[in-house]
Amino acid sequence: MILTLKPNTPKKDIDLICRKIEELGFKPHLSKGKEVIVIGVIGQNAILKKDIFEAMDAVAFITPISKPYKLVSREFKKENTIIKIDNLKIGGKEIIVAAGPCSVETKELLLEIAEDAKKSGAKMIRGGAFKPRTSPYAFQGLGEEGLKYLAEARKKTGLLVITEVMNVKQVGIVTKYTDIIQIGARNMQNYDLLKEVGKARKPVLLKRGLSATIEEFLMSAEYILSNGNYDVILCERGIRTFETATRFTLDLNAVPVIKKLSHLPVFVDPSHGVGVREYIPAMSKASIACGADGLLLEVHPHPEKAFSDGPQSLLPKQFDVMMKELRLVAESVGRGL
């Protein structure tokens, strides 16, 4: 349930309420909006203790949360969450683009891609240092060496770094080098990993699982928020259907649906969602038109030599042309790029 406090409630009263919530075995989650302060009382059957909080003078009114996901829901927070990293705002009017190779291969190649991506208007460099692969014989990533290359690319270009973590043991080292921790589709329901990145206090991009419903997706995000990390970006990256013409089916319905249900920013990954270079520009435009706050795109100057995902990687020139087209779409829906 949500406790909405009276205007100008002093800090000592807020602290008193939070202590009472903890004494009852629940978790308090404080959210300060522009006009009101609310406290989420999170836990099984919290609503049964409603009478205790109704008796507190600082509580204006109490609202039950009907959704199984509590902190993620619009019921908990009406306004959109905006995640601030340095001078970048994710979830605001500006659409944020992350571009880079699927896998970090060499330092020289990564720097080349980062420089090209920045010139075209990207704000982040993406690249996998640890790679989850279907085949155990495929390239698995460079590990910490790849993370160091990403950090150097950030230093030389100013682009923020986003890279994937695959298990709990990697969270510490990935957090050391990255600006945004990515949880891949295969790990969307790795609950121990979600809890760990929830404690990491670094923004997290959570990708939707291959066969996950939107409710399951939001429940996974709830694990991260319930462990104290409110800086979560949700990413639609395609779901598995009967269709074989593309790698997956990019479910753009999910963007407006999630926007209605949740306050968190939403990105789209057309590269993985489509898997065919030719279709990525069209689906990138469609992603912006339907309300996405950002895009993850794969770019590689020599896709035929790429260690992974070459067929879905845009050439730098294609990426540059597409970014110019995306700006027009962004402007048409009242946003910037």
Quick structural summary:
With 337 residues, the protein is α/β, with parallel strands linked by helices.
How would you characterize the overall build of this protein?
The two termini are 38 Å apart. The protein has two domains: 62 residues, Alpha-Beta Plaits; 250 residues, Alpha-Beta Barrel (TIM Barrel), CATH 3.20.20. It is an alpha/beta fold and 337 residues long. Helix content is 34%, strand content 18%. It contains eleven helices and 14 strands. Helix 3 packs parallel to helix 4, helix 3 packs parallel to helix 11 and helix 6 crosses helix 7. Strand 8, helix 4 and strand 9 form a beta-alpha-beta unit. Strands 7-8-9-10-11-12-13-14 form an eight-stranded parallel β-barrel, surrounded by seven helices. It is elongated, with a radius of gyration of 21 Å.
User: Number of domains in the coordinates?
Assistant: 2
What would you call the shape?
A: elongated
H/E order of the elements? Answer: EHEEHEEEEHEHEHEHEHEHEHHEH
CATH topology grouping of the largest domain: TIM Barrel
Q: In percent terms, what proportion of residues is strand?
A: 15-25%
Average of per-residue pLDDT values: 93
CATH class of the largest domain: Alpha Beta
Number of strands: 14
Q: Give me the CATH superfamily of the largest domain.
A: Aldolase class I
Question: Which structural class is indicated by helix and strand composition?
Answer: alpha/beta
Helix content: 25-40%
CATH architecture of the largest domain: Alpha-Beta Barrel
pLDDT < 50 stretches:
none
Q: Note the main sheet.
A: 8 strands, parallel, barrel
